[in-house]
Amino acid sequence: MCGQYGIPIIGDSPSIQGVIQVIRRLGTGSGAVLLTGESGTGKELAARTIHDMSSRRAKPFVAFNPTTLTEPWVELDLFGFNRHVATGVEQHVGRIESANGGTLFLDEVGDLSLTIQAKLLRVLQNRELESVGGGKPIPIDIRFLASTNKDLVREVRQNRFRPDFFFRLSIIQIHMPALREIRTDIPLLATHFLRKYATEVGRDIQGFSQDALKALATYTWPGNVRELQNAIWRAVSVSEGGVIRADDLNLHF
To answer: Do 29 and 48 meet the contact criterion of CB atoms below 8 Å apart?
Structure first.
């Protein structure tokens, strides 16, 4: 199921409709975009949608998240390295080069070190890449998309994020609202996930009981849309009748 204009972002609230309208206008552009919002609000989905609606859609969409890597591996994975880095090491094409012609999505960019930020800024400015260990610079044609759940303005003020990198990344900003801010969209989203997962597992589930709808509407959703999605998947898996009940959702108030 896709939302308005074939965009796979679902919601009728003014906030979500505003996001959809901005994404529609970004299809012909090539500037960097910064997606902000709490974890689980759909920032990567928005980034993929921007790519899919652009002239780069036939080229790679490469996502990178630094949160599970140590800094040396962040640099190696992003920039790649040649076989002269160490004895017995084969050449590795990094994420940036892999995205050439397409889109590089820097997920949780606020977790990058100042050193890596500086090196990425040079790629943004010079449109060329130097892999770890040297070698001839490689011309790069990519669109940069980035996301963060941090307040980067505050990070800049506290010298944890480079202001020049922030300004280059945030030519256009899109804020993905928290689910508690768009409560009117919860029934629509819940129904979408219910149909998706019921079809996948071959269950005939018609909808939600009144107590389930009340639970969905009043829960705080700290994990946002991702938590809602997981709750519906769990409910579809454990429900015994043709209707999802509040107990099936297992929400922790």
So the answer is: no
Whether the model clears a pTM of 0.70, i.e. scores above it, the answer is yes
Class of domain 181-249: mainly alpha
Burial class, 188, CB count within 10 angstroms (exposed 0-12 / middle 13-18 / buried 19+):
middle
CATH code of domain 4-177: 3.40.50.300
Pairing of strands 138-139, 128-129: antiparallel
Six-digit token pair at 183? Answer: 């409560």
pLDDT digits (tens, 9 = 90+) for 56-114: 999 999 999 999 888 888 998 999 876 555 444 566 789 999 999 999 999 999 999 99
Q: pLDDT tens digits, residue range 142-169?
A: 999 999 999 999 999 999 999 999 999 9
For CATH 1.10.8.60, list the domain ranges present in the chain.
Answer: 181-249
Domain with CATH 3.40.50.300 in the chain: 4-177
